[in-house]
Write a structure and sequence with these properties.
Elements lengths: L1 H16 L22 E3 L5 E3 L4 E2 L12 E2 L6 E2 L2 H8 L4 H7 L6 H20 L1 H4 L2 E2 L16 E3 L6 E3 H6 L13 H11 E2 L7 H7 L6 H9 L1 H13 L6 H21 L15 H11 L2 E2 L2 E2 L2 H24 L3 H4 L2 H32 L8 H23 L5 H6 L1 H12 L1
Parallel strand pairs: 2-9, 3-6
Antiparallel strand pairs: 1-2, 4-5, 7-8, 10-11
């Protein structure tokens, strides 16, 4: 049964890769809740990206009766999906694969579940179908509202679950060869179905963004235009795969800084809104909070200097984007962005970096090196003396026998020394 289900999943993935997710037929008169427009796209690597946040469809009944599923063939919802497939789409190859199994059997249920999961992925990937309401395996009740950002996709069975539900989801197909760790499961699922800007490079969507474990940082990074632009700039500068962890660290530092400066000033909404000269003092205060500033200096001086470098980098990237932009709204703030960049370039040295460098040198001078104890030195000396005595005894009874010398590495070492004397 597992082998049959594994073959069905392989065919399911191929079929989903061939689906047309074109949104050119979207209804222009419909405006979903919390979404100004529809942005869904599927690139050549097979990754589905969604850049807007939508609501999740809720159960109308507390017991879950009347829950409808999306048919991937006729593109409509049905409560009895298995019966509908058997009656209306019996000529489809995937339907033929489960018709041969007896009703209420595990193999039949698994085959129908694959088609159901395929329909959910197609439904959630096309605004023409979901109209601002996403589907998942376990839908919230009428009293609980959840957003589409809480959805994760199982990379093995294409099942769509919430972040809490997928941690308890155990795919029954070939479990011996599949990693069961939650982090690896979420990573592979995010690589396949990621809510982010469709204009990002493949490296950002596949290798960098899915590896960010902190959910709060992940949500901030993927929804902030300027942070993503800085990530793209780092990807162009650092091309080696081993530098992906460094780029992730930079993005997390941006997110951590943005969280702190929002606590200081509630008028700041995103990272681009920080780039104003009158927010420079708030910027310095946020850096000091992140780096643990006190009377004695910074608790983490390296974090302070890294943040100054990253903020100056973000100011340059933002300035270049404004120069290339045709948006008059962004052109209007060009002088303010230039002023902020100049302030950071001129004042960070004396406001942040000088204190961080002084703290680093003071910590280096006051650093206490724990030396090896006398007892450990005596143990090592006794051990080496015993080894030397045993090697000397072996040398005394050896008559140029190479095999005996090679058998004992200590003997071979001291024999070579004795021969060179």
């Amino acid at each position: 049964m597992y082998n049959k289900s594994k073959q069905l999943i392989a065919a399911q993935n191929v079929t989903i890769e061939e689906e047309n997710l074109d949104n050119s037929k979207n209804d222009p008169t419909y405006k979903p809740h919390n979404a100004s427009q529809s942005k869904t796209e599927k690139d050549s690597s097979g990754i589905v990206t969604i850049s807007e946040v939508y609501d999740m469809e809720q159960n109308t009944n507390n017991k879950g009766y009347g829950k409808k599923y999306f048919c991937p063939y006729c593109k409509e919802k049905f409560s009895k999906l298995g019966r509908h497939l058997e009656q209306k789409h019996k000529d489809q190859a995937e339907v033929k694969s489960f018709v041969v199994f007896p009703k209420k059997s595990a193999a039949r249920s698994n085959a129908i579940a694959l088609i159901r999961n395929k329909g959910i992925v197609i439904h959630n990937s096309n605004f023409e179908f979901h109209k601002g309401k996403f589907l998942c395996a376990r839908r919230p009740g009428p009293q609980k509202e959840m957003k589409s950002t809480a959805l994760e996709v199982c990379p093995d069975c294409n099942g769509t679950y919430t972040t809490l539900s997928i941690k308890n989801h155990n795919c029954k197909v070939d479990t011996e060869n599949l990693p069961n760790k939650t982090r690896e499961l979420l990573l592979r699922g995010r690589q396949k179905f990621l809510h982010c800007d469709k204009g990002l490079s493949e490296r950002m969507r596949v290798e960098i963004l899915p590896t960010i474990q902190n959910e709060q940082y992940f949500e901030i990074i993927k929804s902030d235009f300027l942070i993503l632009e800085c990530g793209e700039s780092f990807c162009k500068k650092y091309l080696e795969a081993r530098q992906n962890y460094m780029i992730c660290g930079y993005l997390r530092a941006y997110a951590n800084f943005l969280i702190e400066i929002r606590k200081i000033n509630s008028e700041i909404s995103d990272f681009e809104s920080v780039m104003r000269p009158h927010y420079y003092k708030d910027t310095c205060l946020a850096i000091k909070k992140v780096a643990g500033f006190s009377r004695s200096g910074f608790a983490h001086p390296g974090t302070a200097t890294s943040l100054t470098m990253l903020i100056k980098k973000a100011a340059k990237v933002n300035h270049c984007d404004i120069l290339m932009s045709k948006d008059p709204g962004r052109k209007a703030v060009q002088k303010e962005v230039e002023g902020y960049a100049k302030l950071c370039e001129d004042r960070f040295g004396e406001d942040i970096n000088k204190i961080a460098t002084t703290t680093y040198l003071k910590n280096k001078q006051n650093k206490q090196v724990e030396l090896v104890s006398t007892e450990d030195i005596n143990k090592l000396d006794t051990f080496l003396e015993n080894k030397r005595l045993n090697a000397l005894k072996t040398l005394n009874r050896i008559n140029e026998d190479v095999e005996d010398i090679d058998a004992d590495p200590w003997c071979k070492k001291y024999y070579n020394i004795w021969r060179d004397l």
